[in-house]
Amino acid sequence: MNDHPDSNLPPGSAPSIATQGDDSLESAPVSAPEKLAGRRNLLQLIQLRWLAVAGQLATILTTELVLDVRLPIVEMLSVLAALTVFNLASRLRVSLARHAISNAELFAALLVDVAVLSAQLYFSGGIANPFIFLYLLQIAVGAMLLRTGYIWAMVLITCLCFMGLTVWNRPLHLEELSGPGLSVHYFGGLLICFALNAALLVIFIHRIGRNLRLRDSRLADLRQRAAEEEHIVRMGLLASGAAHELGTPLATLSVILGDWSRMGPFAADPELREEIDEMQFQLARCKTIVTGILMSAGESRGEAPGQTMLHAFLGDVVSRWRETRPGHVLHYLLGETPDRAIISDTALRQMLGNVLDNAQEAAPQQPLTLRVSCEGDVLVLRVIDQGPGFAPEILENFGKPYHSTKGRPGSGLGLFLSVNVARTLGGKIEARNLEGAGAEVRITLPLSALSLREEGGEAGVSKSGMKQ
């Protein structure tokens, strides 16, 4: 079936990237990935803050109960409770967010973390507390998330907090536990602080870096999709112009064939008469294709989209395909697929017809199989042939324009358009080689997308539904 080409989180992060809608392709490459990245980054801050809550609680209780160092525990636990409430509010903010998480909002969230850390250090010795170096973690996180102005503002604020703690603090007397000089508890605190900084920086920077890579990948995908949409529009304009130009010669040929069919030499010869009938049939098919192109281009948009039943729609597509391709066998297996009302759209017909045509061209003398099933709320159409299968390079570029082994101009557009129709409906088209011989093209479409839609949605499907 190697001729078919004519025919996408880090742990503990936000959900994976959702498919961007088709109604704002111009703004999507800028706004959507930034919104997703901001949301993920705020979720990373929330997770990091939960670690801070747990670490501060463990440190306070260990210092108070195990090391027997007197702390203003009520005040420190009150600050910790306030941080917990703020983090819960931040999580709710992410759940209810309908707009992008701005850099200013991330900066404000980091300022809250700096304020809480400063308060805890104030109650536990100021700069004499070995955990003073956690300010460096706040700066590093800000450097990863914020723009340049906010980063330097964060550096300035943490420096001011550091200097303020040299003057205003409640001192701890750790030396009383182990004599003069730096106590063993101080050294232990330094070690724990260093380990926390190192571990959290590695984890956080790794996750943020992955978020940024996902954002860049999403931007690249959206730019590629925008280019494909522009390519489809250009092809639509060319197809519409060609359809107009073909109208006159097709009408002329129809008149000539009608005259021939009434001429004595042709009417008296059964073989010639049969050939003329076949030519008239193929000419009528060409007119139907031209009409379909013009309708897809929007020049016959006066009629509302028709409603039909799923079984009737698929049966009609199969019947028309068999009628226009005599001599080719197509096994149609409907199975226990539930029947439901759907829209009868030209783009859907052309999409399935393109896939069947490519399968037939891959194995001209072998029967094809169209197997229909439902997986939950998803309609699954499997087109199976008994050809040689896909070449590896064709599978790798499946659905991309001009990737074909047919070696003729325009090859590779049929499946390119079909893939875009399926994608517009929220579905996809995949291909694989079968064991032994043959190949399978699998079309998955959400049943909800096949129901009657508003004019804007229907037009969006038809735009990509031009037949090759």
Strand order of the largest sheet: 2-4-5-7-6
Q: Major sheet, described briefly?
A: 5 strands, mixed
* Number of helical regions: 14
Report how far the terminal alpha carbons are from each other: 18 Å
Mean pLDDT: 75
Given helix and strand content, the structural type is: alpha+beta
The coarse silhouette is: elongated
Radius of gyration: 34 Å
* Overall tally of domains: 2
Spans of at least 5 consecutive residues with low confidence: 1-30, 175-182, 298-304, 407-411, 454-468
- Along the chain, the helix and strand elements come as HHHHHHHHHEHEEHEEHHEEH
What fraction strand?
5-15%
How many E-type strands? 7
Give the proportion of residues in helices: 55-70%
Structure, explained:
By secondary structure, the protein is α+β, with helices and mostly antiparallel strands. The chain folds into two domains: 28-224; 304-463, Heat Shock Protein 90 (2-Layer Sandwich), CATH 3.30.565. The chain is 62% helix and 9% strand. The protein contains 14 helices and seven strands. It has helices at residues 28-66, 73-96, 103-122, 134-145, 148-167, 175-178, 184-262, 264-268, 270-296, 310-324, 346-362, 392-396, 413-424, 455-463, and strands spanning 306-309, 330-333, 341-344, 368-375, 378-385, 428-433, 439-446. The strands form two sheets. The protein has a five-stranded mixed beta sheet with strand order 2-4-5-7-6, covered by helices on one side. A hairpin with a 5-residue loop joins β6 and β7 (439-446).
